[in-house]
Write a structure and sequence with these properties.
8 helices, disordered N terminus, alpha/beta, TIM Barrel
């Protein structure tokens, strides 16, 4: 299979459509933290879903969508909503992060998953690229959306990565923060343009990088300019603490 061949973005309908395409789950057997954004440093469980509707060249989870480099049969499995809820409920950790790939591709199946997680006493954060509007059933008190629109500098044309109608839906939900990856001050200028055009708030900036050295260098490039704009700043704790190890 090559990157140019069409792939199914949705799981095959089975068991009433109750199974999701999952890349990995972690945080129960080996504890970890939410590494980014408003909950940075909070103990967290992760459900990473497979498949994405973008193909960013700087993506750090290409094993969820790049079938020219990775084998989807090895990198993804189908897991039922019931299995995922039971897995999360086995841990006392309250925060469950649903990420990807792009998780909202599978949001029809996410509605019962999120309902089950909330019933089990969990709160949920979605990490999403902001190109797909959330279903109304997902906009709930114990759900937050960490929306990360991808700039052209991240290796994705903004004609595909910036979807105004979807961004408007996240703004209207009042359950979203907007977290941009940046490496230069020019990126911050573009973030300011997007935030103004689409009324995105609050704005968080995260330095690009998959090593502690690059994260530190990017932080020093960006910090003063972020502070001047009165935006929020987040590091990538999992990179600093665990050297970007998979499953941490």
């Amino acid at each position: 299979m090559t990157a140019s061949e069409p792939i199914s973005l949705e799981p095959t309908a089975d068991e009433g459509g109750s199974r999701l395409m999952v890349a990995e789950c972690f945080g129960v057997e080996v504890p970890t933290f939410q590494g980014e954004g408003p909950s940075c440093g909070h103990p967290a469980l992760f459900i990473r879903l497979s498949r994405c509707n973008l193909t960013c060249t700087k993506c750090d989870t290409k094993y969820t969508w790049d079938w020219a480099r990775f084998d989807p049969r090895k990198e993804s499995t189908k897991r039922s909503v019931e299995d995922l809820v039971a897995w999360a409920a086995s841990s006392p950790v309250e925060l469950v992060v649903i990420t990807g790939g792009e998780p909202l591709i599978q949001q029809v199946r996410l509605v019962p998953l999120v309902g089950g997680l909330i019933a089990a006493g969990k709160r949920v954060e979605f990490e999403t690229n902001g190109t797909i509007a959330p279903a109304l059933e997902l906009v709930a008190e114990d759900v937050r959306f960490n929306v990360s629109p991808k700039l052209a500098s991240f290796g994705m044309t903004e004609a595909k990565s910036i979807v105004p109608a979807a961004l408007q839906a996240f703004v209207a939900s009042r359950r979203a923060v907007f977290k941009f990856v940046a490496s230069t001050v020019a990126d911050l200028d573009r973030i300011a343009e997007l935030a103004h055009a689409h009324r995105l708030a609050p704005v968080w900036v995260m330095p690009e990088g998959t090593s502690s050295e690059v994260i530190t260098a990017s932080t020093r490039v960006l910090a003063d300019a972020v502070a001047t704009r009165h935006w929020y700043f987040t590091t990538r704790l999992h990179v600093l603490a665990f050297a970007d190890a998979r499953g941490r």
